[in-house]
Amino acid sequence: MADDKTYNVLFICTGNSARSIVAEGLLNHLGRGRFKAHSAGSHPRGEVNPYALGELQALGIPTDGFRSKSWGEFAAPGAEHMDLVFTVCDTAAGEVCPVWPGQPLTAHWGMPDPAAVEGSDEAKAKAFRDIAITLKRRLELMLALPLASLDRLAIQREIKDIGKA
User: Per-residue pLDDT tens for 106-152?
Assistant: First the structure.
């Protein structure tokens, strides 16, 4: 992978309303133009969870333009080529994914669903903060990889290992 390349990344979750949205926002912010992140769902909810947007805002990340969308947009003919595809929830990892044009590298970075947390607003906000912290750490590890000097198999191994940490 070239050093001056912009890497297209897709984060997938079932509903595309929480984890995948936070991952998209974080990578677009942390990647500083080196990465262009997107998110999608196998069964999109049609709306973004307000706690996801609240967590991104708390991190100083603009929240304009986020929407819950189907992964079909990224698997359709003529869709933008993805270099990396990550599943961020256990449900999506078990589903049969579309065939991605260009054979991107894939990894599973599963974590609990913060939208499933019941209780006070504080408990819900903490659940979103926790997934944002985990995703941020994983993305920082990925961003530290010398992608231009690694072959595809090494990158594949590294991104899979990051999801296990």
Answer: 999 999 999 999 999 999 999 999 999 999 999 999 999 999 999 99
Global pTM?
A: 0.93
**The token pair that represents 22 in the structure block:** 């936070």
**Residues with catalytic roles:** 13, 89, 97
CA–CA dist 94, 56 (Å, integer): 27
Angle at CA 38, nearest 5°, toward 83 and 70? 110
The CATH superfamily of 7-159 is Response regulator (3.40.50.2300)
* Closest by Cα among 103, 69, 86, 104 to 27: 86
CB 8 within 8 A of CB 36: yes
Pair of tokens at residue 111: 């974590």
DSSP symbols for the chain = --TTPPEEEEEEESSSSSHHHHHHHHHHHHTTTSEEEEEEESS--SS--HHHHHHHHHTT---TT----BTHHHHSTTPPPPSEEEE-SHHHHHSPPPPPTT--EEEE-----GGG--S-HHHHHHHHHHHHHHHHHHHHHHHTS-GGGS-HHHHHHHHHHHHH-
Contact 142, 159 (CB under 8 A): yes
Domain boundaries, the chain: 7-159
